[in-house]
Amino acid sequence: MGRIGKLECDFIARRRNAYAYIQVSMSIADRGVEEREYRPFDHIRDGYPRYLFTLDPLLQERDGIRHLNMASFMQDGGDLI
């Protein structure tokens, strides 16, 4: 877990000098949950990638944040950095 101001980011991944910010939620179908999960990303000012993983079948992109399905990502052997 990492901190972005007073907010928490679930994971901050690092490989050498590259970073990625990661939020994880079962679903963001509920608007309140969606806002809660995206909120920490609003405070990130660097250009490193930001990801939101859920089990939702319908994915979205919002403000450059990639919304990925966790099961598909794992099945495809995905790599973030």
Structural features:
81 residues, alpha/beta, 2 helices, 7 strands
Short characterization:
With 81 residues, the chain is α/β, with parallel strands linked by helices. It has helices at 31-38, 70-75, and strands spanning 2-4, 7-9, 11-15, 18-24, 50-54, 61-62, 65-69.
Low-confidence stretches: none
Strand fraction equals: 35-45%
Number of domains: 1
Radius of gyration: 12 Å
Major beta sheet, strand line-up? 3-4-5-7-6
User: How many distinct beta strands?
Assistant: 7
User: What share of residues is helical?
Assistant: 10-25%
Number of helices: 2
Q: Which structural class matches the secondary elements?
A: alpha/beta
Question: Main β-sheet: number of strands, strand sense, barrel status?
Answer: 5 strands, mixed
End-to-end Cα distance: 18 Å
The outline comes out as globular
User: How would you state the average pLDDT, rounded?
Assistant: 89
Tell me what the structure shows.
By secondary structure, the chain is of the alpha/beta class. The protein has one domain (about 1-75). The chain has 2 helices and 7 strands; from the N terminus they run E-E-E-E-H-E-E-E-H. The strands form 2 sheets. A 5-stranded mixed sheet has the order 3-4-5-7-6. It is globular. It starts with a strand and ends in a 6-residue tail after the last helix. The relative contact order is 0.21. The mean pLDDT is about 90.
